[in-house]
Specification:
Largest sheet: 2 strands, antiparallel
Number of helices: 9
Strand content: under 5%
Mean pLDDT: 94
Radius of gyration: 17 Å
Bound molecules: iron/sulfur cluster
Distance between the termini: 43 Å
Helix content: 40-55%
Low-confidence stretches: none
Structural class: mainly alpha
Number of domains: 2
């Protein structure tokens, strides 16, 4: 089985970060700009990519957990770099070593689901909704689907 460093190199290669020309389009379309009052360049797709390219310990960076995995930056990139795949791959690597505090678990199955900053944003937008709506959103898609099927059986 590949070691941690080898896995990181593979994730970075498959995300295409070597092709980045620093144009900033990914950051211009990234929803995190609007979502977080503490948004910073370090949190942005360009910031994460730059950190990975300079060999810093990006997998240990808390900024990794703000991304929504929306893929908008990937679609906008003229170089075919995937910010989504980079973040997703690095998150999987971290999760394989144990659940970090930045990741919530699904209350239905106990599996990792939804990074804490993303859930905080979503629940903040829905703060006036009744608890059952918010609790439903805390379930992972598989558990939600099971719930729908049970309800409609
Ligand atoms: S859009 Fe692509 S090339 Fe431009 S900064 Fe982002 S990753 Fe780099
Ligand atoms: S995948 Fe993540 S980093 Fe890329 S645009 Fe979406 S939220 Fe931003």
């Amino acid at each position: 089985m590949a070691g941690r460093d080898e896995r990181i190199r593979r994730i970075e290669k498959e995300s295409g970060i070597d092709r980045c020309v620093e144009c900033g389009r990914c950051t211009a379309v990234c929803p995190m700009v609007e979502m977080y009052v503490n948004f910073s360049i370090a949190m942005s797709p360009r910031g994460i990519i730059k950190k990975a390219l300079t060999g810093e310990a990006v997998a240990a960076d808390r900024n990794l957990w703000y991304c929504t995995e929306c893929n908008a930056g990937t679609d906008a990139c003229p170089q075919g770099v995937s910010c989504r795949d980079l973040v997703r791959g690095l998150r999987r690597l971290v999760l394989d070593a144990g659940k970090p505090e930045e990741m919530n678990v699904c209350p239905g199955c106990g599996g990792p689901f939804l990074a804490v900053p993303v859930e905080d944003f979503v629940l903040g937008r829905l703060k006036d909704e009744p608890p059952n709506v918010k609790n439903w959103l805390k379930l992972c898609p598989a558990c939600r689907r099971e719930g729908y099927l049970r309800r409609n059986a």
